[in-house]
TrEMBL record, chain A:
The lineage of its organism: Eukaryota, Sar, Alveolata, Dinophyceae, Suessiales. This is Protein Abitram (Actin-binding transcription modulator) (Protein Simiate). InterPro entries: Abitram, Single_hybrid_motif. Transmembrane segments: none annotated. One of its GO terms (cellular component) is nucleus. PANTHER family: PROTEIN ABITRAM.
From TrEMBL, chain B:
Residues 143-158 have a biased composition (Polar residues). GO terms for biological process: tRNA pseudouridine synthesis. It is an enzyme of class 5 (isomerase). This is tRNA pseudouridine(55) synthase. Its EC number is 5.4.99.25. Keywords: Isomerase, tRNA processing. Residues 223-451 form the Pus10-like C-terminal domain. NCBIfam families: pseudo_Pus10arc. Belongs to the pseudouridine synthase Pus10 family. It comes from Cladocopium goreaui. GO terms for molecular function: RNA binding; tRNA pseudouridine(55) synthase activity. It holds the Pfam family Pus10_C. InterPro entries: PsdUridine_synth_cat_dom_sf, Pus10-like, Pus10-like_C.
Amino acid sequence: MEEICVSDDIRMGALAIDLWHGWLFVISLAPSHPLLAPAAPKVTQVTFGADLAENEAYGKRCRGGANVGLRTVLAEVSSEAENYNICCPIEARLVELNALLQEDPQLLQRAPEDEGFLAILQARRPQDTQRILQKLLDESSPMPPAGEL
Amino acid sequence: MALQALVASQHCCAVCALRLRGCQEVASYQQVLGSSGDENANESCGLCLGLLRAWQEPLRALLSEEPKLEGEYLLSIDLPVVGVLREQILLALAEEEATVVELKDLLQWLAQEELGSRGFVQAKEPLKADVFTIHATGDYSGSGTEILQSLQTPRSGTSRPSKKRRREEPPATLTASAATKALSGLSKDELKTKLGLGDLSEGLQRPSTSATLRLQICREGFFIRGRYLKLSRRLPQSPWVIEGERKGDGSVEEDITTPVAKYFGASEVRFHAEGREDIDVRMLGPGRPFVLEVKNARHLSIKLAEVQSAVNAAGDRVEISELRECQAKDMACLQRDAENHRKRYLAVCWSEKCLSRKDVEQLNQRGPFEVQQKTPVRVLHRRALATRPRTVYALKMEVINQHYFKLQVCAQAGMYIKEFVHGDLGRTKPSMRSFLQGQVEILQLDVEGVEEEDAEK
């Protein structure tokens, strides 16, 4: 699993995208995100995009799922200080939003690589996965893998 | 009278001539067959399409290929459609002279004689276990099929099949049974009009090729059950094929079914186990129950103990035990048991945080609890996204050192143990990760039992 750091609009902060099992993109906060800085303000709430929550994938082979693109706001993260919009970094389809963040928003900061993920996405067509991955690698500066076994 | 004309017109072979006269002595037919034919090499009989001469070779070849064929036989003969057609024309021509021996009957007699002379006994009770069936199918691809077009009934009932279906389905070919239904019992004139023939004997012209007989041996499947151990961490349970390519080296299924098929001379052995384990997980303890369906076996008197030793000797990846015969319903029980039984596992795990005595004590004192598991990310490609509640009945943690520990789990069927350990991004709650409040990874997993008894029973 490669971790790539995609540098988005600086005002929005940085996201980390992991490719799992060759077809699933797991989106979470990258270490360079302001909310993960040492003295960052605590996250108070995570609100997912209005239409998204109803539109996760379903059934065997993860059919359906809302189309999300570079303009889609996956979530609005409110904190004690500033609020942040998490914009989708790739053209994809939604598989799952992290339901745990509704009740425990601070998971985002406590376990960003693990339970505090934001969303799982899949390519709109299976053959697009590699193309998306390549585009991300071309556009971003790869980060060293963080603290692995 | 018509029959005499038929014989004289030389449409039929010497064997058919006999049957037209209503001869019931098999010996006479064998005599005629024994003498070299008066057949023209370029044409075959217009009545039997050469089948009365062509049946011997395939049957003898089949019997010599299967020297150890056991059991009592049943014979099932299917004539080619054109054969049925000509037979019906013949019967119509014969009319009151009902002494004509039918082609199917004659073939049966001749085959029975041959099989009897080889020591085979015809089965009186078709449902006995050792009965096998010889299916004889006649194939004919020569001339004379045009008449059949008039018999084809248009497809009835379906209103406006969709364009796609019309393109895909080939035009229905006439089956032998449909032909029999359409033609039997008709009088000469009715038959003439139905087939569009001026004179019925036109339909019995000698064809250019003869029909051939295809033979196949079938037998009711019987069932064997046993238990298997999987001792390798690189062996999948079933053959692993991705996009036509073989991944992994063999499988538990093949390691068991291939020798069994060889011993019994079976065409196919179906394998069904009570649940399954991942490729990198060992199956230990008493073993996982499985059931085999052995189809179309040639040999029956095989000692199961011998088969068992052969499978175990063949390699050190799979071991089977308790091999014995069983009923068909045992296969159905397997699925039911897979969902009801509790399973016991042993895992070796790594913990990011240092393990404290308190962690271990707290964990070991937990009573049974429920776990909510969302479909693990690693199987999302083949299972529906859902949340499944499963019970963990018992946990026992044994520390190896500060960061490594052994974990025994007794859990409800259907629970994903790997995800219970590492938490699967928090989608399995609770998990060892949530208990220890730090990253936990599973390094090795063994299944130690698949039918754990309820402790309270």
